[in-house]
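Try it yourself: sequence plus flavin-adenine dinucleotide, in.
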Amino acid sequence: GKVDHECEVLVLGAGPGGYSAAFRSADLGMSTILIERYSTLGGVCLNVGCIPSKALLHTTAVMDEVKTMSKHGISYGAPKIEIDQLRGYKNSVIAKLTGGLAGMAKARKVTVVRGLGRFLDANHVEVELTQGDGQDLTGQKEVIRFQKAIIAAGSQPVKLPFLPEDSRIVDSTGALLLKSIPKRMLVIGGGIIGLEMATVYSTLGSRIDIAEMMDGLMAGADRDLEKVWEKFNAGRFEKIMLKTRASKAEVKADGIAVSFEGEGAPTEPQTYDLVLVAVGRTPNGKKIDAAAAGVVVDERGFVPVDNQMRTNVNHIFAIGDIVGQPMLAHKAVHEGHVAAEVAAGEKSYFDAKQIPSVAYTDPEVAWAGLTEEQCKAKGIAYEKGLFPWAASGRAIANGRDEGFTKLIFDATSKRIIGGGIVGTHAGDLIGEVCLAIEMGADAVDIGKTIHPHPTLGESVGLAAEAALGHCTDLP
Ligand code: FAD
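Structure, out:
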């Protein structure tokens, strides 16, 4: 058949994994084509994920902080919310970043083909071209022949089959559109994405209920971190219903009437103006005709890979959300680099000792490496060092001393194997813990590192000193 383009490396999907892989591939001298169905690069993360959520969370965090200033003798009036302008700000942040990516692709001579790609065989992809702002198919098709391919087709929100189709029932993408501020909102799913959006909308004035099937929020975080978050946020939400699932929903004139089952379930259905479904994400593996290329996709839609990001087909790689948990942008980026390097013939491996997680809520909750629960479950003997922010001059000066910093050390080797931080800026602070774990630092290395005073970052050094039993900033 006819071939419209040829390349050494074809990358399918332009999220953080895909664009990172394509840029590294081009930097390594390989001719590279990047296929993306949407009009902008950046995937979920830049367009409908990490970045827009943080633009909104920053705004609402400032709103919340301003309210506390009256305690310092500074008073402001009630906020006046111009929702169109707030949406515009969020969109301008996305535009700046996606525009930057387009420029970077061009500078590297990465060819971007806009359309929906599917494999024809192990060396050809067919792309149905798309147009408009979104993903409108044109019916026009192009065929690309490649030597190597990197699958980076990402994931999408899980749907709850019993929910009716209604504009008031949305996923994270719909919630980020910020169409209006609902009076009453239900968030189904108490994971990071659900809690971040609940934080934004509650500050904007919505009364919010959260339903979570498990017995705790923020699965994956150490329980003591989450407890601090929960205590601080006790007044923020109307009901946090644990061990509870939404079981039925009816579209009514005055809202969506939702019934619940489980320990926290109210007896009556509750009516909401907006229902956010945030119950997880599912990989796009079944939508790319991977079988035509001989690439194995498991029953859930994940593409299995080895530690060089190779699928079962030697010259086809896969990266990012489509290869498995944790579905996080920074994991996708690093995997993308490995795939491109291996495609170029380098001996690269994805062998990270840790992949950090952050809930950018208020306070933030961040963790890296092993949690205490994981150590216990795996039977790893550990020691810990804890520094409560109630003893941090900076946290007290900031008026936010509810948090703590915890480091976890292997009891035998004394090296750091994990850490968790809850408090303002925890997401930025966890970076030092990540580096310490990768470098195999022990408590002496961290404790003897001079940290600037007075900072929140100091709490990492002080937690290490606490682990050594000689923190002079603690009683
Ligand atoms: P994606 O970003 O999913 O990109 C895949 C791309 O491939 C998409 O652009 C899609 O259009 C395209 N595509 C798929 N199939 C085809 C096809 N057949 N043809 C052409 N194009 C195709 N992660 C963090 O690390 N930090 C955060 O703060 C964070 N916040 C988040 C907040 C929200 C609300 C959400 C939803 C996610 C968040 N994430 C966050 C997760 C993060 O967005 C993902 O882990 C990341 O985007 C995965 O990158 P990826 O490259 O694997 O795929």
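One thing you can check immediately is this: The longest strand covers residues 136-151.
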